[in-house]
Specification:
The complex is a heterodimer of chains A (about 260) and B (about 200). Chain A has ten helices and two strands; from the N terminus they run H-H-H-H-E-E-H-H-H-H-H-H. Chain A has about 260 residues and is mainly α. By secondary structure, chain B is an all-alpha fold. Classes of the chains: A mainly alpha (about 260), B mainly alpha (about 200).
């Protein structure tokens, strides 16, 4: 199962937006998720994120592997909170472990908040073209030698995932049993060693080809593309700013709505 | 860009494992790219397998397995590619940990991974890193100081008591120390022998 759904362009309004707008959207979603404790509101934010994915034309199947992997995480988080918050309403006793109902809202709040943060971040990176991200970093004044590295990491991620798959296949062809998580854990070292060495060899090759193309030769470099805010970008940014101000106002004047 | 690599040891002294070990910074393209690639490798191993197992077992309150591989690859990056590659490796991992949702406290990795490589780079300047116990000496302060920001993170995310947050962190530290001492030693020797980092 791939760890990360990477950028895949779709002809939709959201994909065409400037990267700054996408980052602003992520910032607003993170602000809402972090400063809200009420589970019902957090569930609402989650629906909002899924609605944004639908509007952008990102099929839910792209988010599902991450969402499914987090189900077990959410279950364990809720369980831990049931255990850690003793109160007058015991829910269940298994041996010496007693679970309390008082921990459930806290567990649900933490689990929903994590879902919001992760899915909003993942969606932003599904929308974000690595080159646009590099150009965005350049706009912040970062040297192009470092700005290019974020794009490089996004591009090499699927390549290295495939490389790891090949190493698993090679080791299995040599008779090593690697099916199942437990076996993969026990035999981590014979997989990790060639993976690191092959990754470093790939790093050598990339670095040499970049230097042959003049990487680092001059302080500045030119780009085929530029990013500029269009009219739709400005409208969406204004909408996000208004929503943030309205939220901040409500959060300060009516704090009990959010806690 | 030229790279200074003056690591000639005095007569009778052990040669350092990496020829860049006396430097603090390396700004060449190879170091920067290797930093990114090792960050992606760390993410694929941790976010794909280990952090999920850790989180399923402990709810993300401590990381017996992922801490080991995180320390191993952070040490490899800092030892052979120095700074800023060590930072790049760590922060690449932190960025992907957030967007893959591998653990609830992944945002705290941003702070951890800024501190950890600095300790690795500074301590590895005074050790040859040829012996397994050099890795133990390097990892002890790196893990204790570098992982400390996880304590307030687990405290706040999981609504734990401070005592429990400290205990969970201590468990992570011990597991990471044991696993990384062995793995980092073996992998670093293999890298030095293959000369793939030179």
């Amino acid at each position: 199962m791939p760890v990360l759904s990477t950028y895949a362009y779709r002809d939709s309004f959201v994909f065409r937006l400037d990267p700054r707008v996408k980052i602003a959207w992520l910032a607003v979603m993170l602000l809402l998720s972090i400063t809200t404790s009420r589970p019902a509101l957090l569930a609402g934010y989650l629906l909002l994120i899924l609605a944004a994915a639908a509007v952008a034309g990102v099929p839910f199947i792209h988010l599902w592997p991450t969402a499914r992997a987090m189900l077990s995480v959410a279950a364990v988080i809720i369980f831990i909170q049931l255990f850690l918050h003793p109160g007058p309403h015991p829910l269940l006793q298994v041996g010496g472990i007693r679970l309390y109902r008082e921990g459930f809202p806290i567990g649900l709040e933490v689990a929903l908040r994590i879902y919001c943060i992760v899915l909003a971040s993942l969606l932003t990176f599904i929308w974000m073209d690595p080159t646009a991200l590099t150009l965005l970093l350049l706009k912040t004044g970062l040297n192009y030698r470092y700005a290019m590295l974020v794009g490089l990491s996004l591009r090499t991620f699927p390549l290295l995932e495939r490389e790891l798959g090949k190493i698993y296949d090679s080791q299995q062809a040599r008779g090593m049993e690697l099916r199942g998580t437990l076996r993969k854990l026990i035999r981590l070292f014979p997989v990790m060693m060639p993976f690191v060495l092959r990754a470093l060899r790939r790093a050598n090759e990339i670095a040499v080809s970049m230097e042959l193309r003049g990487f680092g030769y001059r302080k500045e470099r030119t780009w085929q593309r530029t990013i500029a805010l269009g009219s739709w970008d400005r409208i969406v940014l204004t909408g996000l700013a208004v929503a943030t101000v309205a939220y901040a106002g409500l959060r300060l004047t009516e704090p009990r709505w959010f806690v | 860009m030229s790279v200074k690599s003056g690591t000639i040891a005095a007569v009778g002294e052990e040669q350092p494992l990496s020829r860049h070990q006396l430097q603090i910074f390396r700004f060449d393209a190879k170091a920067l790219v290797a930093g990114v690639i090792l960050g992606v490798v760390m993410t694929i191993i941790n976010a794909g397998i280990l952090e999920r197992v850790d989180t399923a077992l402990t709810g993300g309150t401590w990381f017996p397995l992922a801490g080991g591989t995180h320390s191993t690859l952070s040490v490899i990056s800092g030892l052979f590619f120095r700074l800023p590659a060590g930072w790049i490796t760590g922060e690449t991992n932190a960025l992907f940990a957030v967007i893959t949702g591998s653990t609830p406290v992944s945002w705290a990795f941003l702070i951890n991974n800024a501190i950890y490589p600095v300790i690795v780079v500074l301590v590895s300047r005074v050790l040859s890193m040829r012996k397994w116990y050099h890795f133990a000496v390097l990892l002890a302060p790196a893990i204790l100081i570098g992982y400390a920001p996880m304590i307030p993170a687990t405290y706040s995310v999981f609504h734990l008591t401070w005592g429990l947050a400290f205990k969970f962190q201590l468990l992570t530290d011990v597991a990471a120390f044991v696993i990384a001492t062995v793995l980092a030693y073996l992998i670093a020797q293999a890298i030095a022998r293959s000369r793939v980092a030179d």
